[in-house]
C-alpha cells in the first residue's frame, strides 16, 4: 500500500517539518519505507510552502509524488493550488479557519491555528495538531509512531507542548467538521 | 549542469535543515531548479541523519540521488557510509574534528563544531558554518543566495548569529585544511 501525502501552507507554519516528522514516524516507528521531498518552485517565491511524503510497505522505487491520496492544507492559497483537483477517494485535512473552500473528496476540518493559539498559547504548534488529527482521521501513520517522531524532532524543552498539541489534534480528528 | 549534494551527520546537527536551506537558496535566489530529499533508512534508526539536494539549471526529471559530486559530512559514521566510495572528481566538506578519515577525492576540512562552540557560543550553528564554506569551496550556490535562504529559514532572533556563522564558514572555506 503506497500513500502519497501532500502538505501545503505558508512559510513559518512548519510545513516542511511536518513532512519530516511524518516520514520519520512511518519509517522508524511504523517500520515502513518513506521518502520526504521538497520541490522548490515558483509557489515558494510567494511565501507558500509545500512538501510531500511517500510512505509504502514496499521499497519506494519511484520517489516522485504523482497523485496524492492524503492532503494536509493550512492556507487558502495551498487549497487553490492543490485542493481543487483531488482524487475522489482522497482525504483532506484542512485548517478550517484558514481554508475557506471545501474539497469534493472526503475532508476533516480542524481549527488548528486558533486552537493552538487559544488553548495552547502558541500558534506555532498548529502543524502538530494537524499531524495528530491525521492519526485519527486516516491510517497513514499510527499515533504511537507519531509521538516518538515528534519527540525526536522538536526543540528540547517543547516536548510537553508538542505532545499536548498532538493529543488535541487526535481529539479534533474525531470530532472535527467533516464530510 | 546537475549537482547532487549529500549531507550526512547525526541527529540534532541540522542536517535536514541544511539541505532545505541549500535547496531554497538555489531555487529561489540563484534561479535554478532544486529538489530536496530525505530518505529514511536503517541508518536513521542509529541516530544518523542524511539528506540530499539536487540542483540543476534544467528541470529535474529524475529526483533520485545517483552519484553525488558534493558531500557535506559531519560525523565519522557519515563518512564511513558515504565518504569511502566517492567519484574522483567529487568535493567533500567535512567537519575536521568529527571526521577522522580523509577521502580520496578533493576535500576541505572545517572545524565547524568547535568554531561554532568556541567563537560563536552555540554548536548548533555548525551546519551553517559548513554551508558558508560550501559557497567559497564550490560553485553549487552563491553567497548572496545562501544568505537570503538562511534569513528565510532560521528562527526569529537568531539571524545575526546565523549570518556570523555563515561568514565564518566562508573564511574557513578558503583557509581550511584541504587537498
**CATH class call of chain A:** Alpha Beta
Q: Report the span from N to C terminus of chain A.
A: 24 Å
Q: In oligomeric terms, what are we looking at?
A: homodimer
Radius of gyration of chain A: 15 Å
Strand order of the largest sheet of chain A: 2-3-1-4-5-6-7
Q: Report mean pLDDT of chain A, rounded to a whole number.
A: 92
- SS-derived structural category of chain A: alpha/beta
CATH superfamily of chain A: Pyruvate-ferredoxin oxidoreductase, PFOR, domain III
Number of domains of chain A: 1
Fold and architecture overview:
- Two copies of one chain form a homodimer.
- With 179 residues, chain A is of the alpha/beta class.
- Chain A has a single domain, classed as Pyruvate-ferredoxin Oxidoreductase, domain 3 (3-Layer(aba) Sandwich).
- In chain A, 42% of the residues lie in helices and 23% in strands.
- Chain A contains seven helices and seven strands.
- A seven-stranded mixed sheet of chain A has the order 2-3-1-4-5-6-7, sandwiched between helices.
- In chain A, helix 3 links the parallel strand 4 and strand 5.
- In chain A, helix 4 packs across helix 5 (126-137) and helix 5 crosses helix 7 (159-175).
- The model of chain A has no long low-confidence stretch (mean pLDDT 92).
- The interface between A and B is medium-sized, with 22 and 22 residues.
Give the secondary structure arrangement, pairings included.
Two copies of one chain form a homodimer.
Chain A: E1 2-10, H1 15-29, E2 33-40, H2 42-45, E3 48-56, E4 70-73, H3 76-82, E5 91-95, E6 106-110, H4 112-120, H5 126-137, H6 143-153, H7 159-175, E7 177-178
Parallel strand pairs in A: 1-4, 4-5, 5-6
Antiparallel strand pairs in A: 1-3, 2-3, 6-7
Helix pairs in contact in A: 1-6, 4-5, 5-7, 6-7
Amino acid at each position: 500500500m503506497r500513500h502519497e501525502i501532500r502538505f501545503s501552507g505558508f512559510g513559518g507554519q512548519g510545513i516542511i517539518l511536518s513532512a519530516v516528522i511524518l516520514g520519520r514516524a512511518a519509517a522508524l516507528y511504523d517500520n515502513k519505507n518513506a521518502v520526504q521531498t521538497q520541490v522548490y518552485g515558483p509557489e515558494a517565491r510567494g511565501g507558500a510552502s509545500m512538501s510531500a511524503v511517500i510512505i509504502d510497505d514496499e521499497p519506494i522505487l519511484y520517489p516522485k509524488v504523482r497523485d496524492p491520496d492524503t492532503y494536509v492544507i493550512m492556507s487558502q492559497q495551498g487549497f487553490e493550488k492543490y485542493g481543487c483537483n483531488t482524487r475522489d477517494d482522497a482525504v483532506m485535512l484542512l485548517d478550517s479557519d484558514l481554508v475557506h473552500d471545501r474539497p469534493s473528496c472526503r475532508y476533516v476540518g480542524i481549527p488548528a491555528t486558533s486552537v493552538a493559539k487559544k488553548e495552547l498559547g502558541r500558534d506555532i504548534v498548529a502543524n502538530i495538531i494537524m499531524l495528530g488529527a491525521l492519526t485519527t482521521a486516516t491510517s497513514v501513520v499510527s499515533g504511537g509512531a507519531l509521538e516518538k517522531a515528534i519527540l525526536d524532532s522538536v526543540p528540547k524543552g517543547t516536548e510537553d507542548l508538542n505532545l499536548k498539541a498532538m493529543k488535541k489534534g487526535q481529539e479534533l480528528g474525531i470530532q472535527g467538521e467533516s464530510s
